[in-house]
């Protein structure tokens, strides 16, 4: 202790100084009880050390300090509790005398406390709205990421299914249109059923591969079992014929039915660049005649 010193000074040096240091450390370490302890200590120091209701002739503005601390570091409930506590302690210490029991002080104190309470309440509502908005944004972001992940997974699955479907279509085209080498370097490809654009492209790719692989010089494309034909399919057949010619081979189309012939005439499509035959057997005879003609020319 300090000999001959004021008791309040002794209390401040021996008690309040360590408490302030403890509060500073607690605030730095973010201890959960520091804010409430700060309000309680500030209230007690203000009421019992900084003001003296029996001596003060006018009320000191320092009595509002605990309210200011409470508004900053705690909540609206603590603001109300602190205001009532300070007011009651001042009334008790005044013993019915002094400026702190006067009506104008009580009215002013209640007014200031009410304003601070409303301000703190608005801050809490704004913070709550902000927290709700942040939670909503985080939730929406999480959902968006989940939807994006699901969309990517679905895209991968669809791509895999598309690849599998293409393989199945290619297999189906090979099964529906078997390529048989009926003579040396002569390939017979019967087309059965309905020929759409996708199947026509697969058929073209398959036959061109077979022609190049087997070194075919003549392709007999039999469409006896083809159910119907339209303008698009007719152009696909013409494109197939031109592609085969680019490989150094020729195409003979056999088995054109009267219905398909009439359809081609109505569509204004001519197959002048393609050799025709009634049946695959007749097409094979044309191939033999062509080979015999080439042989005769060689001997000549």
Q: What's the layout of helices and strands?
A:
Layout: H1 7-29, H2 34-50, H3 65-73, H4 76-94, H5 103-176, E1 180-183, E2 186-193, H6 197-214, E3 218-226, H7 231-246, E4 250-254, H8 258-267, E5 275-277, H9 280-299
Helix pairs in contact: 1-2, 2-3, 2-4, 3-4, 3-5, 4-5, 5-6, 6-7
Number of strands: 5
The helix/strand class is alpha/beta
Secondary structure: helix percent? 55-70%
Give the H and E element order. HHHHHEEHEHEHEH
Task: Quickly list its features.
alpha/beta; five-stranded mixed sheet; 9 helices; 69% helix
Description:
With about 300 residues, the chain is of the alpha/beta class. It is about 70% helix and about 10% strand. It has helices spanning about 5-30, 35-50, 65-75, 75-95, 105-175, 195-215, 230-245, 260-265, 280-300; strands at about 180-185, 185-195, 220-225, 250-255, 275. It has a five-stranded mixed sheet. The chain is rod-shaped, with a radius of gyration of 50 Å. Residues about 295-300 have low confidence and may be disordered.
Provide a compact summary of the structure.
This protein is an alpha/beta fold. It contains nine helices and five strands.
